Amino acid sequence: MEYMKPDEIVELFKKRLNKSTIIDSRIETKTAGLTKSSYNVIWLKINPEDLKNAVKLLSTIHFPHLAIISGNDMGEEIELIYHFSIYYGARFKEISIDLSIHLPKKDLRIPTITDLIPGAQVTEREMKEMMGITVEGLPELPNLFLPKDFAKDTHPFRRDEKGIYPLSKNGNYVGNNIIRKEEVKKIE
Amino acid sequence: MTSISLFEILVKIIGAIVIAFLGIVIGLFYKGIDRKLAARMQARVGPPIRQPFLDFFKLMIKENIVPENAVPWIFNGAPIMTLVSSITILLYLPVGNIPPILSGYGDIVLIIYLLTLPAIGMVVGGFASGSPYANIGAQREMVMMMSYELPLVTAVIALGWKLSQVYPQLNVFSLVAINANPIWGLVGPLGFIGAILLFITLAAVTPGELSKIPFDAPEAETELAGGILVEYSGRNLALFGLTDAVKTIVMTSLTVALFFPYGISHLLAFNGAFALIVDTLFFLVKIFLVMFFEVTFIRVAVARLKIDQVSFAYWIPVSIIGLLGLMLIVLDTIIV
Amino acid sequence: MSKETYSIPIGPVHPSLKEPVTFNFEIYGEHIENVNLAPGDNHRGIEFMGMQRNLIQIIYLAERICGICSASHPFAFCRAVENAAGIEIPERAQYIRVIIAELERIHSHILWAGVAAHELGFDSVLYLSWRAREEVLDLLEYLTGNRINYGIFMVGGVRRDISEEQIPRIRKTLGYYKDIYSKIEDIFLNDPTIALRTKNVGVLTKEDALNFCAVGPTARASGVKKDIRQDQPYSAYADLEVKAITPDVLTGVVNGDVYDRIIVRLLELVQSIQIIEQCLENMPAGEIIAEKKLVKLLNQLKKAKGEGIGRHEAPRGECIHYVKLNESEFPEVWKARAPTYNNLMSWVPMLLGQQIADIPIVIASIDPCIACMDRVTILNKDNGQKKVLTKKDLHELSVQKTRRITP
Amino acid sequence: MKLNKYFERSLWVFHLNTGSCNGCDIEIVAGLTPRYDLERFGIKLVGSPKHADVLLVTGPVTGRMTDRVKRIYEQTPNPKAVIAVGTCGTSGGVFYNSYNLAGSIDKVIPVDVYVLGCPVRPEAIINGVLQAWIKLEKLRESMNAAPAK
User: Considering only CA atoms, which of C75, C94, C43 is closest in space to residue C320?
Assistant: First the structure.
């Protein structure tokens, strides 16, 4: 099996996707042990529209393993990071690839990648519930983690008015048996 | 059996009460030994031998909860039915040299019928409790019942048939007759092997009849949370516990009566009441040994089988062994 | 005849599950027609809590994500923070971390073996294997001070050294496991009833394992050679020869059934013993932590900016933590992923078409850790139940009880 | 309802996890295994709350489990005792400041005995069950002293 070097992978992404797609790229090299053996982590910031193409491109290199999607509410926009890894199965060869996309709060839509990687369903549904992101193409399924009667339009990991106290500043609280009004007042 | 005096009826009633009481006490005691031995084999200290008694007395004072969607009279009736039917069998079984209390009022075919009653009682109780786990448990119990019935009957019929060939004048299906004429003395070498095979068949049926590992699919704790018994609590659960203890005695005594009816009193030249006591004690030792090998040892040494594997095991290998045993005995008779 | 299925719920409280999780099965006869997973009974919102605490406090929170993986999560978390803040950890600390992590793997795999036997109704094996497990717990207690939740990991290194006097004790334990390993192997691989219950049960094909992103022994038993200790070695693993174990090492074929998962875990037991032995031989001298003073470390972390990933091969599979620091006391993002989260989806192909009796062993075969998986999710009061005691009822119950107890 | 003396030598235990981290749960199972062997005191782990005398509850109560804990408490036949196992169960432990936790177990159901530790040691669990006996014994004495209506 041919193994590409990290910089070659970044080059490939730049070549095969649109010029404007790759907003930022960074290769980290870390060492470990007495032997100071090194491994690589690639951070790519890409345009949200090209997410699916990027995953397709990744699949042509090696079937990617999707660990999880992590989300971050940055105020005006939401950052989603897809943590992939490829070239697993051989010693020292695995490369972590983290694709990050920034979605503006007004337009929180991403295409589903479950047609490419079926296992992404769990984490996509999690992001839908936690971050309030619309995943296009994902069938309407009941809540995976949140209970059925959870307040609509409340997404716990958001830091704005849709979030939950005390991360959100508006003092709204969900789950009246858990955080009490007087406690909220005390903290404020 | 022409005329029964009032006195005889009285003796029978008192005898029945004594046997029922002793059956329960010895059953619980043996259950305690069983638990202790199993624990020792698993490198544990284990509960004290009186533990089943403590459990029983504790359960009797517990609250008895009847689930909302259960049928109360069946739900509460099932444990009583199982206990009564298993005690009834006890009355038909000989203890050492003492003939059964109800000898003459039924034979081994009746016992086989009665043996299904506790199982049916449990099935009815399971269906009546209205819980999905109990439902599945009851279904499995029915499947098991249908599976082990054939080998069980094979083993018994074979013995009876052999006896009828040797002593045509006897009431061959009476347990007293079988008890008085041990199978081992009646057969040639071929029949001896056959008898061993029949013993193996009965030994395989015993854990199934008692719902013990590896045939405890109806009560599988890790699958069905107690299966049939899941909704039972308090007094009803205590009665099921008693049934279990009595059934252990029933099955082991049946094995002893069919295959090991020997006493030791005549060897030691005892007679009278003393011989009676010695034989009864020897009988208890015998059923203990049978219980140890058929129940305790097996349940410690193997894993639980799935219900389809259970019914396969009973239908194919165990039935074949049973039929083979029957065939060998028949051959033995014909050749000799 | 029309096919009438009925449904049984398993969980959240069920004796085969030591933790709450809900499955809804549609059953036809004894066979499973459909599976609906409804996790979320064990959510504590740990990540949410973590984002309001400082990084040292989070280590102890991460430790309590799961009591069985109580070295794996702090390991992964500390690595994530070190990567984000650019902290180099001393070599000796890397070796100590690996020793603790591998000891945890031994304890976790033996624990799993016992639980699996219990699910099969083979309680004797549960008792005997858990007796063997006590030995490694004693060692962990000797080295770290606690049987579970060791509290030995710290950002920048470890909190306790392994001294020269302690090494013979470690070797003694390893010798003990070498002695009994053949017995364990004999019980699990040669016992006919265990083989009857596990062979061709809960099969996960290699394609499904890849597609559903399975990790750890679950994936390896299906033939996916994925092990971070091999693929992207970290800490002392970089100096050691670690190979991903697949069942064909022993049997020559990969079936992806429960039996194969048993083989993988048993072989990993041997592998862990070898790793610890190598670590003990090659352990370098030196410091065990980059920054000894907690206050200084906290200040350093407060000023740090950056993002980092920490990965660790936990006994159940890969743990991955993502931390983003933004010059503040609290992390901006803390995302923790436990192996069960990824193996969750692989339950569905494993369970379809199986029998009710297979449910416990198939569920147990991926060594689920619901506590790990559910940490991210958030719950609200569940009002959907019909039969609920109101607060008033409970209050009355409580008052009655108090009256009864106090004379 | 009358307690008899057999009660204290035959306690059947139902284990209930309400969002615990697993640490206490495996220690409860460890309590059954050869080194500690709870069964020698007549303590048995049962699979259905209907059979139980003592509920061993671990973990901070999560939102969804709150109702279930109540239901299981209701299903357990009287007389019964509840033991809160582990620091999380008694006070919440490290799990505070979260909106989906109902807090310690005693906020949901009445608790008789608290066993502390993170995780609790098996010895502590045995001791805790022993305390439950004493509690039940007191209950018996008080009932003997003042007969219930």
Answer: C75
Instruction: Kindly state whether residues A96 and A165 are assigned to the same domain.
Output: no
Which two three-digit tokens encode residue D84?
Answer: 């809160």
User: What is the rounded distance in angstroms from the CA atom of residue B78 to the CA atom of residue C182?
Assistant: 48
Can you tell me whether residue B334 is helix, strand or coil? helix
Do A164 and D99 make contact, defined as CB atoms within 8 angstroms?
yes
Q: Which amino acid is at D47?
A: G
The tokens of A132 are what? 């309030």
Q: At residue A67, what are phi and psi to the nearest 5 degrees?
A: -80, -60
pLDDT band at C191 (very low <50, low <70, confident <90, very high): confident
| Interface membership of B104 toward D (CB under 8 Å) | no
Are C210 and A85 in contact (CB < 8 Å)? no
Six token digits for residue B166: 């040797």
Angle at D124 between CA D120 and CA D128, to 5 degrees: 115
Check if the beta carbon of residue B125 is closer than 8 Å to that of residue B75.
Answer: yes
β-sheet bridge partners, residue C307? C324
CB contacts < 8 Å between A and C, how many? 173
Please name the amino acid found at residue B207. P
Asked whether the beta carbons of residue D22 and residue C406 sit closer than 8 angstroms, the reply is no
Per-residue pLDDT tens digits for B215-273: 766 665 555 555 677 777 778 888 888 888 888 888 888 888 777 777 676 677 667 77
Give, as one character, the DSSP assignment of residue B293: I
Q: What residues pair up with C313 in beta bridges, in sequence order?
A: C318
To the nearest whole angstrom, how far is the Cα of D110 from the nearest Cα of chain C? Answer: 6
Q: Do both A125 and A158 map to the same domain?
A: no
Q: What are phi and psi of C391, to 5 degrees?
A: -60, -35
The two most distant CA atoms of chain D are separated, in Å, by: 45
Q: Does residue A99 share a domain with residue A175?
A: no
Residue D17 half-sphere exposure toward CB, CA atoms < 13 A: 32
Residue A158's domain spans which residues? 151-188
Query: Would A145 be classed as within a structural domain?
Result: no
Strand duo A109-111 + C305-314: pairing? unpaired
Structural class in CATH, domain C46-346? mainly alpha
D138/C405 CB distance under 8 A: yes
| Interior/surface letters B230-255, b for 16+ CB within 10 angstroms, e for the rest | bbbbbbbbbbbbbbbbbbbbbbbbbb
Q: Kindly state whether residue D1 falls inside one of the protein's structural domains.
A: no
Do A77 and A158 share a domain, yes or no?
A: no
Q: pLDDT class for C381, splitting at 50, 70, 90?
A: very low
Final residue of a domain: which of A137, A161, A180?
A: A137
The distance of A16 to chain C (nearest Cα, Å) reads 24
* Interface size, chain A vs chain D, as Cβ–Cβ contacts under 8 Å: 22
Please indicate whether, in this complex, the C-beta atoms of D7 and B61 are within 8 angstroms of each other: yes
Which tens digits make up the pLDDT trace of D6-34?
A: 666 778 888 888 877 778 888 888 888 88
Mutate to test the interface with B, among C16, C123, C187, C200 (most CBs of B within 10 A): C123
Nearest CA in chain A to D108: A177
CB contact B176 to C (< 8 Å): no
Same domain, residue pair A131 and A188: no
Q: Tell me the torsion sign for CA atoms B62, B63, B68, B70.
A: positive
Domain ranges of chain B: 6-335
C32 touches chain B (CB under 8 A): no
A114 touches chain C (CB under 8 A): no
The single-letter code of the amino acid at A144 is L
Helix (H) or strand (E) segment spanning residue C77 = helix C72-85
- The reply to whether C344 touches chain A by the CB within 8 Å rule is yes
Paired sense of beta strands A37-46 and A22-32, if any: antiparallel
Q: Per residue, what are the HEC states of D96-120?
A: CCCCCEEECHHHCCCCCEEECCCCC
| Helices B319-335 + B189-209 axis angle, to 10 | 150
From the CB of residue B84, how many other CB atoms can be counted at a distance below 10 Å? Answer: 16
